[in-house]
Write the structure tokens for this entry.
Amino acid sequence: MNRPFTADVCLSRRSVLEGGARIAGAGAAVMALGSMVLTPSQALAQASGVQPEEELSQTMERLFAKRPIKDAGDMMDFKIPVIAENGSVVPARVEVKSAAVAKGKFVKAIYLIVDKNRRPMTAKYTFSADAGGALVGTNLRLGATSNVRAVAEMSDGSLFQATQEVRVTVGGCGG
């Protein structure tokens, strides 16, 4: 005698509530991710303020206004190769030494600026007083042989700069 297939399911109140919580959590995650996706018109609206090119003087004026920029001297350690075989990947490292940071004064931001790039400001890193120090390592993209500047902005508004010329080679010849 064949007995029909039956599934004995025992649903407890706890298992029903756990299942409902999982479904609600998944729904909330989908809603949160959906709000982060930009529509093409939103992306175009964000990009509309970007200019294709900007001169170095315009960049410096926009970022620092008329504030004087002092030579960093020994307060900043700026490491970047003098010759870059591939301008698409140029490693750079900037560290503002702790002795340069006085009591109540800290590094607010570090800017990396490539003089001859179409958009000179290549990177900006922001720090808080709680950061404890300012150390940045990154890869830059250089379109041609150019000066590269590391500018440290302190919490009191003062600016310090270290500059290094980087020669970009193509096939072993200087650019």
